[in-house]
Amino acid sequence: MLREVRAVRYVTALREGGSLPGLLAADDGGLYVTKFIGAAQGRKALVAEVVAGELARALGLRVPELLRIEVDPLIALGEPDQQVQDLVKASGGANLGMGFVSRAFGFDPLAFPVDSRTAGRVVWFDALIGNVDRSWRNPNLLVRDGALWLIDHGASLIFHHNWPRAAASARRPYDAGDHALLRFAPDLAAADAELGGLVTGKLLREVLALVPDVWLEDEPGFGSAEEVREAYAGQLAERAAGPRDWLPEVAA
């Protein structure tokens, strides 16, 4: 399971995100960007964050620590913004915390060059998870000390919004036309050779085991949280299996 902390203070709202995440202080002394289960995107966005984020980490990509942050709705009582109060009130219990990457700044493709190998690995990963939210308009990348960090994967794994039709989308081609790293000639062939064999059933089950049961329970069509985990693992294993003809064609 994910490491667990308890929120002790609501620090500030982060209004750049559509789900109105907040920066919370926790009982371990850390600051965590928190995505709330009561947001419009709901618990599936939190599942996608954990599955995609921990899979990226296992593939050697940099992702902030992801953890379970327990939230008492009372911590927002002093907030003057009614929208923030309502969101936190609707989010008691287990929420998603993301380690705050200090000294990082938002990625700008015009100011920060990326080598083709790194670009290829990120595009390959986004194609695997069907990430539609890494465009030049909204890169969802941070830069610290010259290194890229991947954030915000709640819009990935879109198949879980329609489980009856999920299997039919397992090999859906990925459109990288607006990808933030397309200008850097991503070496997808090298990335595929390096990463393709790493996405095994064992790895996927290990990643899914990190998702809290409470975010998976009562899913229509499934009898238990474990059945839902197996469905995610099966869907991603099918996509990862060769030939990976869903990979985009990019200019070298």
Q: What would you call the shape? A: globular
Low-confidence stretches: none
Structural class: alpha+beta
The portion of residues assigned to helices is 25-40%
Strand content: 15-25%
Radius of gyration: 18 Å
End-to-end CA span: 41 Å
Strand line-up across the major sheet: 1-2-3-5-4
Counting DSSP E segments of at least 2 residues, the number of strands comes to 8
Helix and strand succession?
A: EEEHEHEEHEEHHH
Number of helices: 6
Q: Main beta sheet, described?
A: 5 strands, mixed, barrel
**Count of distinct structural domains:** 2
- Mean pLDDT, to the nearest integer, reads 95
Question: Which secondary structure elements does this structure contain, and how are they paired or packed?
Answer:
Layout: E1 4-13, E2 22-26, E3 31-35, H1 42-58, E4 66-71, H2 82-89, E5 93-99, E6 105-106, H3 116-129, E7 141-144, E8 147-150, H4 188-195, H5 201-208, H6 225-240
Parallel strand pairs: 1-4
Antiparallel strand pairs: 1-2, 2-3, 3-5, 4-5, 6-7, 7-8
Helix pairs in contact: 1-5, 3-4, 5-6
Describe this structure in words.
This protein is an alpha+beta fold and 252 residues long. The protein folds into two domains: 4-99; 105-240, no CATH class. It has helices spanning 42-58, 82-89, 116-129, 188-195, 201-208, 225-240; strands spanning 4-13, 22-26, 31-35, 66-71, 93-99, 105-106, 141-144, 147-150. It has a five-stranded mixed β-barrel. It has a three-stranded antiparallel β-sheet with strand order 6-7-8, with no helix packed on it. A hairpin with a 4-residue loop joins strand 2 (22-26) and strand 3. The longest helix is centred in the first third of the chain and has 17 residues, at 42-58. The protein starts with a strand and ends in a 12-residue tail after the last helix.
